[in-house]
Every structure is written in structure tokens, then in C-alpha cells.
Amino acid sequence: MEMSWACRPATAQRQAGRNGGAPTVQSRVPRRASPRTHHPFVRLVATTLRPVRPYSDLLQHRLLHPMHRFVIVGLGNFGASVAEALYSHGHDVIAVDVDEQAVDDIAPHCSRAAVGDGREAATLEEIGAEAADAAVVSTGDDITASILATMALQDLGVDVVYVKVISDNHARIMRQLGATEAVFPERDSAFNLASRISEKGVVNYVRMGRNLSVQELVVPEEWRGHTLRELDVRAEYGVSVVGIHETTIDDMIVPPNPDDTLRHTDTLILAGTDEAIEKVADLASATAEEAE
Q1: Looking at domain 202-291, does it have CATH number 3.30.70.1450?
Q2: Which of 97, 159, 203, 249 stands the most exposed, by the fewest C-beta atoms within 10 Å?
């Protein structure tokens, strides 16, 4: 493939064309902009995905949580929404699409936006995909493009690849190719996918209001072997444990027995404000990372 115009921020491409300059990978400095309208499925309740954890101070977020690099291939509604949500978490997000307008639209909402063919390993390498912690492939209804993009990412050493799929057969193909997960946009929201791959430890959530949610988390290491009565979670963290999920037998105990001992195979169903659950989510995330 001719690479003369690959992997360029759209505005930079037009300028280079006028000036006769050689194409290079350039970062677009995000400008202040109004929030992008999310994909219609963004607010749906997902059964396996986690909530975006709000931070008013992006710097504080980056100090408390390590920044990761994510590559988004395909900037339709779903891919663009994932890119924006990951960027809102404070991560390094590189977005690529062949559509110049889509690249211009997402540029204020990610670290770098580039025009290029995400099916080509050379394009992905030029934008720095080989250093990514994970990638999201969202190429619309083009199954072939999703296959080629996934294989190209794997060739560059990106082992964690989430692929938007359009059918069960498409999902089966992607799993056989080694995709980390096949994502059905009608079931899983872009907003939640971004949260799940951005953080560890939170399993599930239901948004109850602007600042209220119900979330399912792994049991933090320091809570294991203790009872809810001993932990006094409501007094210490300001959240309520409304249920315990015994994952080994897939049994949900609602309401939980306050004298039952918490085990590493359990997950907790917590209700409270985002800020309160955030404190427990930090403990759960640390536990999940140590287990890897």
C-alpha cells in the first residue's frame, strides 16, 4: 500500500499537500471542545463491563493510576466513543481511520488522531501501535477489515485486542484468531468497554443516576477472611453491600449474611455514590493486578 498519506493527522495532511512536505506521523494537540455525543449504546447496562470512574482533575487521575496506551482502529460511533472514554480516563489514546472527517472529529478527544489504513501493519507501526497495552478494532460491518486489523496488531505484538463484531459467526472467527474479546455493540456499550479495559477489579455495574451506581467488584485482598460485620463497610467507605456473588457456583446471595466470611472467589455487589465506590474499586483493582 502506498504510505505517502498514511498515519497523518488530517489537518496536517492538507497542510503538507499544500506545502509539498513529506508525510510524517504528527500528534494533534487536543483543543478544548464540548463533549462528544456518545454512541446510542453508551448508557446501556452491560453485563460484563465496568463503569467509567469520574475525575474532575485529570492530573490527579494520572498520579493515582498508571497511564496506558490504547490504539483504536476505526472511528465510527462505537470506536470514537471508546477512544473518547479512554482519553477521559487519562490514558494515551491513538485513533486511526481512513476517513479524514472522522479523524478530524475525534482529534480533540484523544492524544493523537491519524489518517491511515489500520489493516496494514506498516500503518500501525508508524503510529506507535507496537507499544500499545491494548487495541480496539471497530471497523463497522467490514468483517475482512476487522480480521486484517486484528492480525496486523498481533503481528506487532499487541496481545490484547477487543473487536467489535456484527454476528455470532463473526465473533467465532475473531475468537479463533485469538482476539481477547468479541464485543457486540447492541449488548455492550462503548462507554463501559473503555472502563473495563482501562481498569481492573470492577466486574459489572448499573448506573442509577448522575452520581449513583451499583457495581460488582472482586473482593479486595485485605477484606478476604473477614465478615461484613467485621469490616463495617458502610461506616468505613460509605457504601452498602447489597449482595455477594459466589462465582464458583454462580449463586447470588441477596441480601448478604453479615456473618459470612468473604472469599477470594466471591464478588461484591455495592451500591453508593461514584466517589464512595471509587475507594473500594481502587482496592479491588490493586488486588486484580496482583493476581495477574
Answers
A1: yes
A2: 249
